[in-house]
Design a protein that fits this description.
The complex is a heterodimer of chains A (about 375) and B (about 375).
Chain A: H1 2-17, H2 19-39, E1 47-53, H3 58-69, E2 73-79, H4 82-90, E3 96-100, H5 104-111, E4 113-121, H6 125-150, E5 161-169, H7 176-207, H8 209-214, H9 220-250, H10 258-282, H11 286-302, H12 315-322, H13 325-339, H14 347-367
Parallel strand pairs in A: 1-2, 1-3
Antiparallel strand pairs in A: 3-4
Chain B: H1 2-17, H2 19-39, E1 47-53, H3 58-69, E2 73-79, H4 83-90, E3 96-100, H5 104-111, E4 113-121, H6 125-146, E5 155-163, H7 171-201, H8 203-209, H9 214-242, H10 252-276, H11 280-298, H12 310-316, H13 320-333, H14 342-367
Parallel strand pairs in B: 1-2, 1-3
Antiparallel strand pairs in B: 3-4
Chain lengths: ~375, ~375
């Protein structure tokens, strides 16, 4: 026990001596929480719109007014021809073209049908899809307005209609930041815990001090605990900073209990630190460790459901998300913060992450040899 | 010249000796492209939903079977009461609940109005919007079938055209992004680390007192990474054309030319970082946090720049990758020629010259 205390003291001294690490612990989480949710915003507000109006009728003007008044679109210009509008898209000055055909108004009234053409810059499929669904819903609204104008009321024989109402739970204002902030918080805890642990042991290897530790009577488990505990504390600390920042700047206060949150983060950190240890046994230099860590972080994040829903992935990718610890933390963070899920709701997540913790750490202890 | 050649050989030995890093460097872009190309899709498929049928009549059965038959949804649970909805959402099993009112069929055919409530888990607002849209479409479909004799009057139809990427493939955003990122990783991060390592180990002084000119020392460090970058670009392009099905619309030579400009820019940035840092860890953190994150976040690679607050939009202008990614998209996807990208190319060239000038200044100070 005394040996462990000495080791811990050494680790903490070394960590706090390094200004860079201090900065990484204190400033990075704050910066990321401030920048990421603002940058990673799929709430489309300023879709750049170019309109080609061949009709210049009352209806076409009304439609344009309705679209620009919706708040989603910014009318950048009205072109004379489709080709001219296409140029705008080529130069990234417009995202969407709405082409109103000649005789638009006449066709609606006399032929009962008219065609609008919407063209979107679909290089980014996700934003194009959203832009189209916004414009479609506005056009649908406009359409029903016209109908009420023309259909003689009241109809003697109304058609049976199914009324669809929809409600959005857990995030009624549909604030995208509420979605992204808890996820980023989970990401930060992972980043700090994983990279710092992986680099720390490799640094001892690179500078040769690990051999000095190896020849002392320190037991394997004492060495590993001595490395894990400081970073566990730092990880918990980063999470606390994260909660404070997300409350102050985004007004996000967890619906669920903090105890469950910290308990889960505690178990999760043991797992991810174990993975950091494991990484360090594979690397000889800090550069290598950094690369291996970077490689795994990239995959963890992409397959962690931070930005794109796991439900949409093909089956083989879903299997990968099941063995990705980060996806559990991100999901639990969201469930806890937004939905207020209880310990019982999260019991399987706990079990799985506990499994990860045992697996990674046993493997790391097994791989770590006191001989060189 | 022969000396330079020997030095370059030495650097290559250093790099290839470390097979783990090599594996990551060459494997990372491939893995990333495959994940982006095949795993991350914007299509909604087999999303788990719950049904609460308070009526249990023929009509609701018909609508439910429509949901069952759609590719978008999988009916995970059939609920019995309103109270269960919240529980299922909290356990995370379902993303959408479809609730039919009591006496649905009767209401529909006698009062001509019946209600279906869609409750979405709006934790992810975009996903919620999409799911509600799809579910509404299914219900409306059913309704149109129901009223098929009566065609709706005064209809505005929309014809959609998805420019450049009609199948909405993820590769179209990821290929330019991965190129911008991986080149920065190799050219900036690796170069700066390898120069700083010589400093850290003290071997830099030995190199500098050798008869080699200092700029040749640096050049010999830079050239191997330039070569590796080109190898990576080739794999990425081959992969995207042959496996991801994303052809190069514009001129390949132009694409390579702008890529070389970007690599120069990234390399000079790497040299600059190495002149201002003294430890590998610092070089890594600056490259990783100062460069990689902005590339992923601010370059417009994943997230549209137009949605960001003004201050971030302004900052995004100093991210070299932003200009490179715009150019790659213009040439590779839109098929534009040099007239469409000369502005971005000049900006990137200007940045490169700027980095080199500062590096030279800093480098001389250090030697004095």
């Amino acid at each position: 026990m005394r040996i462990l205390l000495f080791l811990l003291r050494k680790e903490f001294l070394q960590i706090f001596r390094d200004k860079l690490i201090i900065r990484m612990i204190f400033i990075m989480p704050v910066m990321q929480l401030l920048i990421l949710p603002n940058a990673a915003n799929f709430e489309m507000k300023n879709i750049l719109l170019s309109i080609v109006d061949h009709d210049h009728s009352e209806y076409s003007k009304k439609l344009i007014d309705k679209i620009t008044a919706s708040g989603y679109f910014k009318l950048v210009n009205s072109s004379q021809s489709y080709d001219e509008a296409l140029k705008q898209i080529e130069q990234d000055k417009a995202d969407l073209i709405i082409e109103i055909p000649a005789n638009f108004e006449v066709d609606i009234i006399k032929e009962n049908q008219s065609n609008l053409m919407i063209s979107a810059n679909a290089i980014n499929g996700q934003t194009a899809g959203l832009a189209i669904s916004y414009s479609n819903s506005i056009i649908r609204e406009f359409n029903s307005l016209i109908r009420t104008d023309w259909i003689v009321q009241p109809r003697l024989n109304p058609l049976p209609t199914i009324e669809i109402t929809s409600s959005n739970w857990f995030n009624p204002k549909m604030n995208y930041k509420f979605f992204i902030v808890p996820g980023v918080l989970g990401l930060l805890v992972t980043l700090v815990g994983f990279i710092l642990t992986a680099l720390n042991i490799v640094k001892e290897k690179e500078s040769g001090t690990i051999e000095q530790l190896n020849v002392t009577p320190i037991k394997k488990y004492q060495f590993i605990l001595g490395k894990l505990i400081p970073f566990w504390v730092i990880g918990m600390f980063v999470m606390t900073i994260g909660f404070v920042v997300s409350f102050i700047f985004y007004g996000i206060f967890p619906e669920g209990s903090f105890i469950v949150g910290y308990l889960f983060a505690g178990v999760y950190l043991i797992a991810i630190l174990g993975f950091g240890l494991l990484t360090s046994t594979f690397a000889e230099t800090q550069q290598q460790a950094m690369f291996i860590a970077y490689f795994f972080m990239m995959i963890f994040v992409l397959l962690g459901g931070l930005f794109s829903p796991i439900e949409n992935m093909p089956d083989w990718a879903k299997v990968l998300t099941y063995i990705n610890p980060v996806s559990y933390l991100i999901e639990v963070m969201r469930m806890l913060v937004l939905k207020g899920s209880s310990f019982w709701d999260l019991r399987f997540h706990f079990l799985i992450v506990l499994g990860f913790a045992i697996f990674f750490n046993s493997l790391a202890i097994f791989k770590y040899k006191k001989t060189v | 010249m022969k000396q330079l050649f020997n030095f370059i050989k030495k650097e290559f030995h250093h790099i290839f000796r470390d097979y783990r890093s090599m594996l990551v460097l060459l494997g990372l872009p491939i893995v990333q492209l495959l994940i982006f190309g095949f795993a991350i899709t914007n299509e909604t498929k087999n999303t788990n939903i719950a049904i609460l049928d308070n009526a249990k009549d023929e009509t609701t059965q018909q609508i439910i079977s429509k949901f069952e038959n759609s590719d978008y949804f999988d009916i995970e649970i059939t609920l019995k009461s309103n109270d269960e909805i919240e529980k299922e959402f909290k356990s995370g099993k379902i993303k959408l609940a479809v609730v039919f009112q009591e006496d649905f069929q009767n209401e529909l055919f006698h009062s001509n109005k019946a209600q279906i409530q869609l409750i979405a888990d709006a934790t992810d607002p975009n996903q919620a919007t999409t799911l509600v849209n799809y579910a509404s479409a299914i219900i409306q479909d059913y309704q149109t079938d129901l009223n098929s004799e009566n065609k709706l009057p005064y209809q505005i139809k929309t014809e959609l055209r998805m420019l450049y990427n009609p199948e909405l493939k993820g590769a179209y955003t990821s290929v330019p992004g991965v190129m911008g990122m991986i080149l920065l990783l190799i050219s900036t991060m690796m170069t700066s680390i390898s120069i700083v390592r010589e400093k850290e180990l003290g071997t830099m002084e030995i190199l500098l007192v050798s008869p080699m000119k200092p700029y040749l020392v640096i050049l010999s460090k830079v050239i191997p990474y330039f070569v590796i970058s080109l190898i990576n670009v080739t794999t990425i392009l081959l992969l995207s054309v042959h496996i991801l099905g994303m052809p190069i619309q514009g001129s390949t030579i132009l694409l390579i030319a702008i890529t070389i400009i970007y690599i120069f820019c990234a390399l000079s940035l790497g040299i600059l970082i190495s002149t201002i840092t003294d430890s590998q860890l610092a070089a890594m953190l600056i490259s990783l946090l100062g460069l990689m994150l902005p590339v992923v976040m601010l370059s417009g690679y994943v997230f549209p720049v137009a949605n960001m607050p003004i201050i971030l939009q302004v900052i995004s202008n100093i991210v070299p990758a932003k200009w490179y990614i715009i150019m790659v998209k213009s040439v590779m996807i839109k098929g534009l020629g040099i007239s469409g990208i000369w502005k971005e190319a000049i900006i990137l060239l200007g940045m490169t010259i700027f980095f080199i000038i500062i590096s030279i200044k800093r480098f001389k100070i250090r030697l004095a």
